[in-house]
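Protocol step 4 of 6.
Sequence for Ribonuclease H protein (Trifolium medium) entered exactly as in the expression construct, tag removed. Do not edit the line below.
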Amino acid sequence: MSEFAIFKAFNVNIHPPKAPTITEVLWQPPFSIWIKCNIDGAAKGYPGFAACGGLYRNKYGDFIGGFADNLGIASSIYAEGAIHAIEIAVGLIFGLKLTPS
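Step 5 output, structure tokens:
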């Protein structure tokens, strides 16, 4: 039996998938008095080991601050870090520390 016949018997696709289309994305600055936070996160599994990170920039694109955190075991949605980014921003702007209730 040929290798091709074995692959066919087990429904193995031997044709590589089409390469993904690459789309250029440009960073857009915030309004003049705002600070923009770009965040990302990932989890390996659901739930799984997760981490998130983000950076803050002003209207000129200057780096204001950033963060990167290991979140332990969490979902990918939690890992996206939106809540974490908001907590840090409130601390930076208003000098407040948010605590979970």
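Step 6, annotate. The mean pLDDT is 79.
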